[in-house]
Amino acid sequence: MKGSKPQLIAEGKRIDGRGPADLRQIRMEVGVLKNADGSAIVEIGNTKVLAAVYGPREVVPRHEEQVDRAIIRCRYRMLSFSTMGERKSPAPSRREIELSKVIREALEPAIISSQFPRTAIDIFVEVLNADGGTRTAGITAASLALADAGIPMIDLVAAVAVGKVDGVIVLDLNEIEDMYGEADMPVAAMPSMGKITMIQLNGVLTPEEFRYALRLALDGINKIYSLQKETLKKKFVEVEE
Ligand code: ADP
């Protein structure tokens, strides 16, 4: 529960020691699940997310199939032990249902679904440990898992949140900053296409703050995108050797 607001910025540093434009430490790995067609783990600071992709596969129930494309389905879930304070209820919450839709919509523009008519591509995002930015880590991980599954895409999708804490625009908010900050703006993009596929804003930013925050988010996204590509290349090099 929300207590009294802690000081979030002191002498230009954030509560975890980062500068305003710094990402948390990131680790990525693909092909972590044998039974999935594609999978990935993304860790960003203490947030840890697992994504699994199955398909293209037969559509069940059949009436959902589309004659001209694959349907994309997504389920985002937080494990009950993933949260800091109280254990999260295992029942699907409204937030999880909404985030499942948000993540799907952020990924859909990248997927060339017309290549697989009458099939389904199922994406599962499981939050193993939550410390802010789970939807954005989920998008980054799911995009890697789609690539790992060999699903054709026009680009990878990478995502990160920006926000405003103690009046300062910061990149990649942790849970405390998300909870007590003035604004939180998750962004997802296909960097080499120069296209934003998701942008949400919770809180208030001035037009200048918004423009700066978006630039900061896109810089962060470019760094995450480079790591995604490196991670995928590493897997293929390892397989070839
Ligand atoms: P995001 O994880 O994308 O930042 P939110 O802004 O909704 O999404 O959540 C911010 C953070 O608050 C989460 O990353 C998580 O650390 C925490 N959180 C969200 N929902 C819950 C919950 N039901 N129980 C405990 N912590 C939660």
Task: Describe how the helices and strands are arranged.
Elements: E1 9-10, E2 13-14, E3 26-30, E4 38-44, E5 47-58, E6 71-78, H1 94-107, E7 119-129, H2 134-148, E8 158-165, E9 168-171, H3 175-180, E10 183-190, E11 195-199, E12 202-203, H4 207-240
Parallel strand pairs: 6-7
Antiparallel strand pairs: 1-2, 3-4, 4-5, 5-7, 8-9, 8-10, 10-11, 10-12
Domain Exoribonuclease phosphorolytic: 23-152, 155-219
GO molecular function, one term: 3'-5'-RNA exonuclease activity
Main location: cytoplasm
Provide a quick synopsis of the model:
The chain contains 4 helices and 12 strands, in the order ββββββαβαββαβββα. With 241 residues, it is an alpha+beta fold.
List keywords for this structure.
binds adenosine-5'-diphosphate; five-stranded antiparallel β-sheet; hydrolase; single chain; nuclease; 241 residues; 12 strands; PNPase/RNase_PH_dom_sf; five-stranded mixed β-sheet; 29% helix; Ribosomal Protein S5, domain 2; alpha+beta; 4 helices; exonuclease; globular
Walk me through the structure:
The protein is α+β, with helices and mostly antiparallel strands and 241 residues long. It has one domain: GHMP Kinase, N-terminal domain (Ribosomal Protein S5, domain 2). It has helices at residues 94-107, 134-148, 175-180, 207-240; strands at residues 9-10, 13-14, 26-30, 38-44, 47-58, 71-78, 119-129, 158-165, 168-171, 183-190, 195-199, 202-203. A 5-stranded mixed sheet has the order 3-4-5-7-6. Strands 8, 9, 10, 11 and 12 form a 5-stranded antiparallel sheet that branches. Helix 1 (94-107) crosses helix 2 (134-148). Adenosine-5'-diphosphate (ADP) binds next to helix 2, helix 3 and strand 10.
